Amino acid sequence: MLPVTHVIAFGAWLVAQSEATPSAPTISIYQKPPGVIPPGGSTTICCTCQHSYGSFVLYKGSRRLRSLEQSGSRAEFSISNATYEDRGTYVCHYLEGGTVLARSDELEVSVEELRLPRPDLSVLPGHKVTVGADVMLRCTPTHPSTGCYLYLEGQIRAQLLPREQGDYNLSHVQEGDGGRYSCQCYAINASREWSAVSRTLDLVVRDYTLCNVVRLALGAGLLLLLGLLAAEAARSRCCGGGGSLPAAGPPRLCPSSTSRWGK
Question: pTM for the complete prediction?
Fold first, then answer.
């Protein structure tokens, strides 16, 4: 049977090896703000990765555009005064030491004339909800016979809304469902005409259960600290702490404590 020290050492080596072996990075790409942009408009292509010591390169189709300036684990590429030449498929590559370790999904950027009025985006029951609530996002177009897309900033995919209602239901929301939403509509005819993007709507999902647990823990810790301070102050007064030592005589004894902490 192996000694306990050998077993412990072997376990520590396994932990060190697991920490030393890096996991394969994942990279994501999204448009900020999302949606179809008009000629002359602007947008930003964002690339993110959980690693922060490599570099990003942006491609349009098979053509390399440029290395992106990195800020932490994110890099951005701005498109200003957009033209029809800017529309197309964009991909981010993540590199370390010149080696490509990850490629993002494809992001489709569209540049079109925006001829329709912007739709109105609303949320029920409200902008701030608790975890587990049911939420409905409603995109109301101002033009008949339209289809609409719902966008969530930071996500590459848009949600196509039902043509009859324009509602999107979120059942039992979690904190990950929160964020900045917007919607955009298009006319269903021979030549697709787009609307401007709606005003953004921030959905906040709060977990009050976790907040209450944290508050209770902090309150209990504070009460315990106050109790310890009060007990220390009482003991110091009882024993004459801080005063000068008596010149002679037997040592002064404190009376026994009746607190449950002394049992």
Answer: 0.69
